[in-house]
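> call design_seq(struct)
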């Protein structure tokens, strides 16, 4: 399936089942939150999100709430969820897991 082709609902639900910690907000968005030791760590993570978003040319909505960062993803051009949303979310999960491992 082309990366920017809107996924049918059941395909999106299947992709979501394999994506730890993310939920669907409505038919068009997925959302995931990450918690950090403090505000500086949250901001550092946002900087790394920006690098991945630029690499993928796929940009999340980012909410920073002190030690918590919430990302929301949709594919504007497709008017809903595409594989790129799930691939992006998986990259952010991988980056978060690595950042937690680093700080042990
Ligand atoms: C021109 C540029 O490739 C497009 O505007 C990209 C940029 N980042 C994007 N981000 C997201 N979330 N959806 C898009 O459709 C999208 N399109």
């Amino acid at each position: 399936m082309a990366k920017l082709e809107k996924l049918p609902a059941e395909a999106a639900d299947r992709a979501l089942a394999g994506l730890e910690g993310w939920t669907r907000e409505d038919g068009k968005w997925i959302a995931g939150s990450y918690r950090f030791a403090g505000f500086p760590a949250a901001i550092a993570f946002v900087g790394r999100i920006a690098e991945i978003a630029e690499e993928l040319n796929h940009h999340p909505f980012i909410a920073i709430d002190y030690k918590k960062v919430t990302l929301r993803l949709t594919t504007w051009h497709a008017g809903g969820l595409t594989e790129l949303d799930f691939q992006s979310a998986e990259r952010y999960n991988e980056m978060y897991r690595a950042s937690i491992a680093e700080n042990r």
